[in-house]
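Re-run requested by the PI after the first attempt was lost when the workstation crashed. Everything re-entered from the original request form. Ligand of interest: pyridoxal-5'-phosphate.
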Amino acid sequence: NYEVLMGILTQKIYESIRNVVGEDSFIPLHTPFFGKTEEKYVVDCIRSNFVSSVGEYVDKFEKAIREYTKTKYTILTVNGTSALHICLLLTDVKKDDEVLVPSMTFVATPNAVRYIGAVPHFVDVSKESLGIDPFKLDEYLSKIAEVQENQCYNKKTHRQIKAIIPMHTFGHPVDMDELTSVAERYKLTIIEDAAEALGSLYKNKHVGNFSKMAILSFNGNKIITTGGGGAVLTNNEDLAKKVKHLTTTAKKPHPWEYVHDMVGYNYRMPALNASLGLAQIEKLDGFVEKKRILAERYKESLKDVEEIEFFVEPGYARSNYWLNAIILNKEYIDARDEILDVTNKNGIMTRPVWKLMHKLEMFKDCPRMDLSVSEILEKRIINIPSSAHLIKD
Ligand SMILES: *Cc1c(COP(=O)(O)O)cnc(C)c1O
């Protein structure tokens, strides 16, 4: 009978995860890992007295990110959400413009769109990347959008569609070549939400290099952390200067005078956080390597559980596997809650994917395309423990 079958499936999944993560009484979903260098740099930062938004640790961490991602400019911010806010402000997105965002994302993405009074327009994702499906998007835009004098309009709402924010879900890159070709045809500016994807490559190039501006997050649950923090990445010098200006209360450089030439933001990351970040980014290659091994072990351990698939990176990508995910076969979606219940009760922390954005109260009236892939994935995805340090040295 069905209930017995569900019980057996839940047990199989629980045991397959245990095989990989060991028998500790509690295995969190994702925790940071700190060593001696973190303590050393943070203490050094305190002793230097430069703990705030100027100081050598800000410059050093920015440089380390530039070198790692091979982007020309990096500006650190207080978090990833503020980085998104700044990118949108500099993309000429205005009140009542539309911005295309996946419905399957963390709430920060559409929130930043609302901060400037613009309207999130929700789009569907692909099963292959869990990020925006460029082919489905193309077909949708061919029906609802029209380009006039280099500007894209929504024929139904008569609003302008200005930008698109692909999000690299759980660290797996969106198909950026295909997305770029759609964005070019419809005159949309791309902003990459790479909050989850530091360390991930699309066709051998680090994410963040496929758009005018991209953002990272260093929140406590991300692959590396500064406690809280974020960054804007860009290859455009003029934009980089504007990001720095806008995040630094729009203060004009001057030896002693306080001149601010617009209403700016206090969004710069303090050096204290950057010192932690510098120590963390020195470990990033090791974290990525361990996470890829962890994913490989899960794949192996779960391969005989026929009722699910373990999500693997798309063929064009080398992913950081920030969060591992299992995807229940469609016939087994009813088992999701029991699997979540049993694993969490027995010390294996698991989580469903975020509730889809168009179902949240504040976004329920926003325009959207057919979201059937997101809708079914929402019922099928379970994230499982993914800390890099589950793999021992
Ligand atoms: C973490 C995250 C952000 C930014 O979050 P902050 O907590 O503000 O740093 C943005 N988008 C996505 C998809 C995220 O996962």
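Saved to the shared folder this time. The two ends are 44 Å apart (CA to CA).
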